[in-house]
Design a protein that fits this description.
This protein has 208 residues and is of the alpha+beta class. It has one domain: Cytochrome Bc1 Complex, Chain A, domain 1, CATH 3.30.830. It is 38% helix and 12% strand. The protein has a 3-stranded antiparallel β-sheet. The chain is globular, with a radius of gyration of 21 Å. The relative contact order is 0.14. Pfam families: Peptidase_M16_C (PF05193), Peptidase_M16_M (PF16187). InterPro entries: Metalloenz_LuxS/M16, Peptidase_M16, Peptidase_M16_C, Peptidase_M16_M. It comes from Pterocles burchelli.
């Protein structure tokens, strides 16, 4: 540690501090509010695969890292049990897999906006009915919106426990990758959350 401290001091101490706060672009909260983002785009893939991706541009969510609302919603959307979107689509032989969520870094989440995406891997039959698949997804999201999260604290606590177990029993990572991750966390979270802010859920706030 003494050697590392010496190196860091030598390398970084000469960098001047201009005393300015960290730049924020939080005032630009609707970058995608244009007609072009209310359309369906068809893209021909290089390999033979059918995929339907639905994307929403939301207000920035990084300040809610202790609640992780998008993680909570993606958990519900991506559930595969009885009554889930994927279960219904599989019974119709329309879909093979479904993923919903936000990577919580870089392009997907920053001080300007947050992206929430749902991606469905379709069968050949599902490709023929992709409008109906999209309709089912929107119906499910509408149902979540209508019912609200108030009665689902049990689900949130379940997610919290699972993430806590994964954190405590995670495999050791490469030290360089770990340091890089911590440096990124230092730009995003409060000091007490540098080690855990990107993984754990701390507070249940249904209004968020």
């Amino acid at each position: 540690l003494d050697t590392l401290e010496k190196w860091v001091t030598e390398i970084f101490s000469e960098i001047p501090n201009n005393g300015l706060p960290k730049p924020s672009f939080g005032h630009l909260t609707q970058p995608f509010d244009t007609p072009e983002f209310h359309k369906l785009y068809r893209v021909v893939p290089v390999r033979k695969v059918h995929s339907l991706s639905i994307t929403w541009a939301l207000p920035p969510q990084e300040q809610h890292y202790r609640v992780k609302p998008l993680h909570y919603i993606s958990w519900l959307v991506g559930h595969e049990g009885k009554g889930s979107v994927l279960s219904f689509l599989r019974k119709k032989f329309w879909a093979l897999a479904l993923y919903g969520g936000n990577g919580e870094t870089g392009f997907e989440q920053n001080s300007t906006y947050s992206i929430f995406s749902i991606s469905v891997t379709l069968t050949d039959e599902g490709y023929k009915h992709f409008y109906e698949v999209a309709h089912v997804v929107f119906q499910y999201v509408k149902m979540l919106q209508k019912r609200g999260p108030d009665k689902r604290q049990v689900i949130w606590e379940e997610i919290q426990k699972i993430e806590a177990n994964e954190f405590h029993y995670q495999e050791q990572t490469d030290p360089v990758d770990y340091v890089e991750s911590l440096c990124e966390n230092m730009q995003l979270f409060q000091k007490e959350d540098f080690l855990t802010g990107d993984q754990l859920l701390f507070e249940y706030k249904p209004e968020v």
